[in-house]
Structure formats: C-alpha cells, structure tokens
TrEMBL record:
Similarity comment: family membership: Belongs to the binding-protein-dependent transport system permease family.
ABC transmembrane type-1 domain span: 70-264
Pfam families per UniProt: BPD_transp_1
Subcellular location, record wording: Cell membrane
Protein topology in the membrane: Multi-pass membrane protein
CDD domains assigned: TM_PBP2 (cd06261)
Name of the molecule in the record: Carbohydrate ABC transporter permease
Length: 278
C-alpha cells in the first residue's frame, strides 16, 4: 500500500510538472522573443536572443500608441468589473433570499448562456441594438455587452451567498431594515472574497476581449483597446511582419493582469480554501 501511495504521488507530480511546462513554455518563448530581432525570430534558430534588444519595448509602446490604448482598455475593464459585480451580486441576493415566479426559469436561462457558445453569431444583433441606443461608436456599447455576460460571476456569488447565514437577514428585518438596506450594509461587505474572485475573472475577460472592441471602434480608431492595437503591430509601414514588436507588446499587456491578480490573490485563496474545507 505504501509503495502504491508513493507511486501515485510520483505520477501526480510528473503530471503536474508536465502541465506546468506546457503552460509556461509559450510565455517563456514570448518573453525571450520580445528581445530578439524580427529576422532572428523568423529564422527560429536560437532559443535565447543573440543580443538583447530592449528597444523593442519602446518601439512597441510608440507604434501601438500604448498610452492611449491602455487607457481605453482600463476604462472598459474597470467599468465592466463594477457593472458586472453590481448586477451579479444583486441578482444572487434576490435569487438566494427570495421566492418569486419564474425563479427556476431565470436560473436555467443563466445556465443556458454559460453552456451554449454563440460567439460571433450574436455580434450583428448586438451591434444593431447598440445602433438603436446610439452607442455603436462608443466604448459604452462594448461595456454594456460585456456586463450582460455575467452568468459565471452570478453563480460564483450565489455560492458565496449560500454561506452567509439567513439569521443576519432576519435580525436586520426585526430592526426595521429593508431588503435593500440589508443587502448594502450587511450582505455586500460579507461577499468580499467572492467579489474579489469575480473582479479578477471579469477584469481578465474584459481586458483580453478583442472582437467587440474591434467592431465597435472601426470608425473611431482613437477608441481602440490594447488588444486591437497589438494586432495592428503585426505589419509595419512597409507591410513587413513585426512579430518581435507584437511579442514585446504582449508582454507589456500582461502586466495589468498580473497586478489585478496580486490584488485579488487573497480572495482567490480564500475561495480555494473554502472549497477544500467544504
């Protein structure tokens, strides 16, 4: 039995190391490639750069207009995070604490949006809707559509909501507190770990979104986000491939995600510990 346990641990560690290698090797290749010349990247003969070209980052920043596109991406991502957490937390509170007609149907529709990937099929109806709202050439159209895709965050917060004792609601009701006041003053602060995890996932999804910003900013290039700007680095003025600049820009675009993870790391660990304990 002991030999079988040791063998099982060895197999598990081999599997985990293989997954870590497969996950990290593209990141390492991208980081190293960001310091190479385009000719060196195209040849693909070396793993490490022959000479480290730190100027690639400065060129990528200038050519992709990083300062402007980064600001646009931050606006989209932060507004999406705030809107998604607000809508999802209120929906989770109502579904968990109250009974109303169509409750099971609502939960079923939320689940349906998670397991059915419609992708670009709904892009045209979404764009037509934003045209009628006069938001088709604005980042607010992108933000509203991203907020509407909140089903996964709704279920994350619903699971956290079930861990908050209902006795708190009853005590607040006896003190004369309304459901809305109870939610804002009592329930929402206790949802801190769930909100942190939801914010991390929402920020990552909004930051990496490419298709929606591309479509909604075609007539206004100054509103393009960082993902769209990075794609513009693919070809230079002479239509030559600029893969080294794209890799440098990709490395720069990863930094905000790392910062967001550092801020939400504590909440993410609390969620993991809670799931293991449960």
């Amino acid at each position: 039995m002991r030999l079988r346990t040791i063998l099982g641990k060895i197999i598990l560690w081999i599997f985990l190391l293989a997954v870590a290698f497969i996950t990290l090797i593209p990141v390492v290749i991208t980081i190293l490639g960001s310091f190479k010349t385009n000719a060196e990247l195209t040849a693909g003969a070396t793993f490490l750069p022959k000479s480290w070209h730190f100027s690639n980052y400065a060129e990528a920043w200038a050519q992709a207009n990083f300062s402007r596109y980064t600001l646009n991406s931050l606006i989209v991502s932060l507004a999406t995070v705030v809107g998604t957490l607000l809508v999802s937390s209120m929906a989770a509170y109502v579904v968990d604490r109250m009974d109303f007609a169509g409750k099971k149907l609502y939960i079923g529709l939320q689940s349906f949006t998670m397991f059915v990937a419609v992708g670009a099929v709904v892009l045209r109806p979404q764009f037509d809707l934003m045209v009628k709202l006069h938001l088709h050439s604005s980042l607010w159209g992108v933000i509203l559509i991203l907020i509407s895709a909140h089903a996964s965050i709704f279920f994350i917060l619903s699971s956290f909501m079930k861990g908050i004792p209902r006795e708190l609601d009853e005590a607040a009701l006896m003190d004369g507190s309304s459901p809305g006041r109870t939610f804002w003053r009592i329930i929402l602060p206790l949802l801190g770990p769930g909100l942190g995890v939801g914010a991390l996932f929402t920020f990552r999804g909004a930051w990496n979104e490419y298709l929606l910003p591309l479509v909604f900013t075609m007539t206004k290039p100054e509103l393009q986000t960082l993902t769209v700007g990075l794609a513009n680095l693919k070809y230079g003025i002479s239509a030559a491939s600029q893969t080294h600049y794209m890799m440098a820009g990709a490395c720069l675009s990863i930094l905000p995600i790392l910062v967001a993870y550092l801020f939400a790391n504590k909440s993410f660990m609390q969620m993991t510990a809670g799931s293991l304990k449960g």
